[in-house]
């Protein structure tokens, strides 16, 4: 369906726009007052030909994009002058930061072998981009050595090669050498060598070039006079072979300039197929060759080599943005016809101006989106694979090939938290302060959810998200600019229609019988104890919100207030605090287009606790864990669940209010990280009849003055449960049919609860059976019970309301001093049905039970309960059972919408 295809393309576009870039090949920036012509930003023409550049389409497009970059106040009609004046007013550093920030480039690898007027050194670039590495151009090194001379003595091949080889070997070790004063005084971090052999003498490299041939070639070079330019084929081949040996020994890639060359150069000699002899040479099978510039105009040949030889990699810098848009797309498509996508990388090949980095990155995103979009439409790629390709091409492939983790010194010899994505480095890591939509950064932390010592100032915050969970269990938010939040909203909140709590999972229109309409406003006020920096959007914060009336009183329909009110009753009457810990189950689905319709497929084929599935998902799970830990959310475990593509994260116990807060943030983390890795995470209780259900089983206990009082004080108790614990759990069991209206509030909840893997349609409890509706749990090695678990709790539940309903039922048990019936020690589907009350078979039955149970009206408010029942009733007939959904509405596919909503 076109609409579904459009959704996937929007998802791809978001991934392309958000990805942080490794620019794997570029050159030094020059200062504002350089004599290097700014027109060179748009063309490689020289002399009088350069002054025709303003008449090219590339110039006109680039000028428009730079005008937009530097601000809407700039006038396009004033031409290039207005951009240049803006650069001067900002200064070199600030204008460069603007460009790199907009380009979302966080690592640049610089070949400083082009000597430009007044160019800044590599170290300077660290002021404007977080990580910088050096690419050593071998011919430039050789020319510098020869230019320096041998103190009056005549150069011989042996004397030259001794120094040349020594220099090559010193750079990978980051040492300063005897010739260091010829270069920039920087602790060079060489991540690759680079050769200009293609445009000097061609790629038909003589791998068996003799020493005498090289000696003769050196003589020709020296006789040509100064300034030296190495162009003799034998000598170039000789130094290339030796440089490649050094690169291979230090596990460094060798970049090879391809395609474009000097005007007098025979382009046919740059055909990468000429590399055949080198690639077949057994001495260099462990080398890694990077063919730059998409090998244009030999992209097809380069693609073949990358597919045929493991040591060949491709980089499409310079082809973007110097070619026409059609030419750029055509070139990249040629590369991807045969080349594995994990061997293709991006670079800007930017020279002299930070604006070149920006334009290169901007157009590369447009080109890659266009290429991958076509691949998706043609059925070559799923959305998952396309998103993965985006990350590989723009960053991951380069990170692995150039071993860029060695550039990150942020965690060495320091007590500071490790930062792997430098977009969020603060002043203690340099002057760069970037934000990241989706990054691998150890997040900043603040408030009770985060460590104050790592939080720092909120001055760089741009936006604060106020989050609430509606009655249907959906996560909602509103964003407020920082200044507005801290000057007004922090104290007074923002207004919402009363209907915000009268919405179902069917639509965003208020349900009629809730008595909540769009007329009238309530206020959502941030609970500042939950405010924290968002791990994946570093210049934003998020905070959970309470709902109040305009007069400032707690609103009767506020879920957080409902839990707060019932918790206070438990505290006042019995001196108890209910603690909770959630199991968070979720599926990672892949969205694919089949017959022009969107379908969801599982992301793996393995079942519960399978090591292969866990290993494949480990990078993603580690990132989730990092984000959760940064939010002070403690995790007990992570594992592969029984469903294909299903996982579970177990959260640590805390007070029930904190448990609900942490569950909400945990789901936000899972959704974000899952999307980052190209999956669609869903918590829907039952997304497929053929797969296991997905729940948020809640573990419940009671404490008094910080001590667990649910368990018996000794082993004398019949069930290992204290009298208090038994009464509380008995109340939950007694009211379980009504509780399900809160904790299993959607028709899909019952598809999960009564699927084949579950036990029980009766009001019973069991020991140590996680599939029972209520089960006690004992810690390893213990005799007494520590807590009980309610698996009938899922993501369609508002967690505050679900916990409030369990607590309400437990309080009734405490008041009545109820005792537990005997546990059922066998599968409840085998019990005598006449001995037990039957649990609701569907949502309608649960609502009927709630209708007859007045306890919840008294404890949680009659109007609120009426509202919730109305919302549940609307969800039922709309969603229907899974088996009936195709019959219900084939075009709208409402069930798939639930996967997106939950």
Mean pLDDT: 78
CATH class of the largest domain: Alpha Beta
Could you say which overall geometry the principal axes of the C-alpha atoms support? elongated
What share of residues is helical?
25-40%
Distance between the termini: 22 Å
Output the CATH homologous superfamily of the largest domain.
Answer: Metal-dependent hydrolases
Describe this structure in words.
This protein has 902 residues and is of the alpha/beta class. The chain has three domains: 2-32 and 91-407, TIM Barrel (Alpha-Beta Barrel), CATH 3.20.20.140; 423-559, Ubiquitin-like (UB roll) (Roll), CATH 3.10.20.70; 564-860, 2-Layer Sandwich (Creatine Kinase, Chain A, domain 2). Helix content is 39%, strand content 15%. The protein contains 30 helices and 26 strands. The strands form three sheets. Strands 16, 17, 18, 19, 20, 21, 22, 23, 24, 25 and 26 form an eleven-stranded mixed sheet that branches. The longest helix has 24 residues, at 354-377. It is elongated and about 105 Å long. Mean pLDDT is 78; it is low at 173-187, 409-447, 450-456 and 877-892.
Keywords:
26 strands; alpha/beta; eight-stranded parallel β-sheet; Ubiquitin-like (UB roll); Creatine Kinase, Chain A, domain 2; 902 residues; 3 domains; TIM Barrel
């Amino acid at each position: 369906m076109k609409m579904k295809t459009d959704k996937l393309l929007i998802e791809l576009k978001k991934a392309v726009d958000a990805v942080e870039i490794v620019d794997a090949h570029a050159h030094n920036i020059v200062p504002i007052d350089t004599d290097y012509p700014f027109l060179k930003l748009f063309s490689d023409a020289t002399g009088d030909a350069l002054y025709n550049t303003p008449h090219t389409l590339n110039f006109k497009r680039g000028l428009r994009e730079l005008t937009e970059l530097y601000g809407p106040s700039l006038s396009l009609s004033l031409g290039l002058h207005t951009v240049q004046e803006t650069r001067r007013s900002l200064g070199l550093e600030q204008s460069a930061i603007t460009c790199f920030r907009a380009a979302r480039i966080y690592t640049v690898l610089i070949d400083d072998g082009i000597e430009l007027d007044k160019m800044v050194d590599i170290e300077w670039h660290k002021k404007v981009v977080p990580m910088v590495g050096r690419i050593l151009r071998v011919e430039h090194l050789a020319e510098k050595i020869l230019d320096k001379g041998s103190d009056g003595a005549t150069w011989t091949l042996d004397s030259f090669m001794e120094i040349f080889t020594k220099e090559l070997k010193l750079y990978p070790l980051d040492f300063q050498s005897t010739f260091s004063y010829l270069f920039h005084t920087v602790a060079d971090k060489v991540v690759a060598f680079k050769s200009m052999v293609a445009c000097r003498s061609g790629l038909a490299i003589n791998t068996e070039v003799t020493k005498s041939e090289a000696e003769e070639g050196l003589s020709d070079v020296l006789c040509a006079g100064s300034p030296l330019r190495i162009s003799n084929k034998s000598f170039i081949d000789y130094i290339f072979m030796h440089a490649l040996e050094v690169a291979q020994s230090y596990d460094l890639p060798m970049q090879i300039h391809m395609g474009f060359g000097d005007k007098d150069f025979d382009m046919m000699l740059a055909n990468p197929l000429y590399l055949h002899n080198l690639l077949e040479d057994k001495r260099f099978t462990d080398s890694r060759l990077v063919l730059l510039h998409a090998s244009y105009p030999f992209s097809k040949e380069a693609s073949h080599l990358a597919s045929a030889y493991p040591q060949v990699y491709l980089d499409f810098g310079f082809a973007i943005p110097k070619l026409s848009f059609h030419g750029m797309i055509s070139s990249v498509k040629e590369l991807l016809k045969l080349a594995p996508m994990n061997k293709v990388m991006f670079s800007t090949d930017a020279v002299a101006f930070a604006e070149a980095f920006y334009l290169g990155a901007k157009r590369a995103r447009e080109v890659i989106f266009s290429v991958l979009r076509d691949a998706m439409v043609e059925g070559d790629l799923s959305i998952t694979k396309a998103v993965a390709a985006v990350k590989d091409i723009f960053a991951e492939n380069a990170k692995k090939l150039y071993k860029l983790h060695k550039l990150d010194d942020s965690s060495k010899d320091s007590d500071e938290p490790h930062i792997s994505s430098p977009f969020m480095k603060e002043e203690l890591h340099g002057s760069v302060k970037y934000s990241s939509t989706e990054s691998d950064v150890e997040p900043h932390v603040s408030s009770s959810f985060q460590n104050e010592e790592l939080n720092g100032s909120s001055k760089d915050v741009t936006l604060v998200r106020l989050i609430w969970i509606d009655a249907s269990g959906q996560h909602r938010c509103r964003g407020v600019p920082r200044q507005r939040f801290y000057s007004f909203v922090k104290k007074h909140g923002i207004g919402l229609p009363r209907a915000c709590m009268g919405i179902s999972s069917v639509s965003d229109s208020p349900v009629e019988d809730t008595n909540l309409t769009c007329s009238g406003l309530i206020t959502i006020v941030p609970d500042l104890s939950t405010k924290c920096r968002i791990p994946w959007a570093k210049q934003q914060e998020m905070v959970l919100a309470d709902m109040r009336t305009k007069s400032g009183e707690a609103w009767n329909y506020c879920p957080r207030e409902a839990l707060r009110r019932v918790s206070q009753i438990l505290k006042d009457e019995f001196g108890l605090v209910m603690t909770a810990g959630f199991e968070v189950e979720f599926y990672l689905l892949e969205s694919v287009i089949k017959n022009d319709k969107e379908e969801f497929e599982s992301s793996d084929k393995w079942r519960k606790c399978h090591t292969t599935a866990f290993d494949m998902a480990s990078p993603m799970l580690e990132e989730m864990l990092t984000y959760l830990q940064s939010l002070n959310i403690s995790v007990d475990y992570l594992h592969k669940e029984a469903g294909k593509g299903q996982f579970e994260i177990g959260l640590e116990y805390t007070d029930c209010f904190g448990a609900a807060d942490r569950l909400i943030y945990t789901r936000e983390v899972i959704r974000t990280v899952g999307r980052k890795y190209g999956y669609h995470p869903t918590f829907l209780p039952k997304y497929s009849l053929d797969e296991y259900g997905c729940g948020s089983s809640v573990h419940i206990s009671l404490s008094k003055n910080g001590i667990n009082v649910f368990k018996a004080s000794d082993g004398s108790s019949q069930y290992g449960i204290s009298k208090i614990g038994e009464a509380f759990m008995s109340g939950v069991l007694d009211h379980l049919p009504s509780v399900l209206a809160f904790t299993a509030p959607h028709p899909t909840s019952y598809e999960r609860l009564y699927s084949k893997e579950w036990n029980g349609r009766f009001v019973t409890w069991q020991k140590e059976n996680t599939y029972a509706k209520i089960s006690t749990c004992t810690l390893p090695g213990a005799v007494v019970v520590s807590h009980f678990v309610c698996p009938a709790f899922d993501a369609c539940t508002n967690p505050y309301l679900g916990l409030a309903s369990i607590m309400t039922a437990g309080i009734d048990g405490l008041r009545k001093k109820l005792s537990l019936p005997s546990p059922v020690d066998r599968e409840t589907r085998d019990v005598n049905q006449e001995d037990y009350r039957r649990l609701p078979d569907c949502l309608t039955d649960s609502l009927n039970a709630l209708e007859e149970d007045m306890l919840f009206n008294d404890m949680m408010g009659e109007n609120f309960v009426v509202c919730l029942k109305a919302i549940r009733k609307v969800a039922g007939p709309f969603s229907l059972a899974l088996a009936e959904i195709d019959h219900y509405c084939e075009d709208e596919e409402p069930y798939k919408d639930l996967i997106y909503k939950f």
